[in-house]
Amino acid sequence: MTAMGREFELKYRADSGMIAAIRAAFGDFSEIRMETVYYDTLDAALSRRRWMLRRRYENGISVCTLKTPLPDGSRGEWETPCDDIGLAAKELCKLGAPEDLLPLTASGLAEACSARFTRLAKQIVLERCTVELALDEGTLMGGGKTLPFAEVEVELKPGEEAAATAFAEALAQEFNLTPEPKSKAQRAMALLH
């Protein structure tokens, strides 16, 4: 089980050519096949709070995650290995997720939307931080619609946010990447409307 972490990441829109160029520039990556289902309550209480609850299969291993917005623009993140999203809500609260999660989800959860993609991931040790560079390509699905996507993520592991930001901005400039302000969940949810 994973306790609460504070997630700081920068996302950029990309295309297959940009992904291939970055992969060539940085060498070997680990490949992870991801299948994600995003959940909400029947009255959309989680979406209204900008909370994201998901179950993701990462190369066949099920991990459930809750992300919540923090005042500084980063996100609180809790995750636990679990196959059942209802049981996972209880486990996430034990790890420190907001206790409101239990009453909000007590009347049940529904699959809202989903994503299927391949992630190429690599840890990069910089002078003042370590980041994970992730190259994602796949499809977002919601409301019977699909949207192909490609994106680059730079996620801070240990170290300084400023160093991770400087690395991400240099990467974006070198490979002509455009900032992506919306998460995969937000873009998949938008397909519902």
**Tally the helices: what do you get?**
6
- Helix/strand-derived category reads alpha+beta
Number of strands: 10
Task: Compute the separation of the termini in Å.
Answer: 35 Å
Helix percentage: 25-40%
Mean pLDDT: 94
Report Rg: 17 Å
- Going across the biggest sheet, name each strand in turn: 1-6-5-4-3-7-8-9-2-10
Shape by Cα distribution:
globular
Poorly predicted tracts of residues: none
N-to-C order of helices and strands: EEHEHEEEHHEEEHEH
The fraction of residues assigned to DSSP E strands is over 45%
The biggest beta sheet reads: 10 strands, antiparallel
Secondary structure layout plus pairing:
Layout: E1 2-7, E2 9-13, H1 16-26, E3 30-40, H2 45-48, E4 52-58, E5 61-69, E6 75-81, H3 85-94, H4 101-105, E7 110-125, E8 129-142, E9 145-159, H5 161-175, E10 178-179, H6 184-190
Antiparallel strand pairs: 1-6, 2-9, 2-10, 3-4, 3-7, 4-5, 5-6, 7-8, 8-9
Notes on the protein architecture:
The protein starts with a strand and ends with a helix. It is globular, with a radius of gyration of 17 Å. The mean pLDDT is 94. Helices cover 27% and strands 48% of the residues. Strand 4 (52-58) and strand 5 (61-69) form a beta hairpin. The longest helix has 15 residues, at 161-175. With 193 residues, it is of the alpha+beta class. It contains six helices and ten strands; from the N terminus they run ββαβαβββααβββαβα. It has a ten-stranded antiparallel sheet, with helices on both faces.
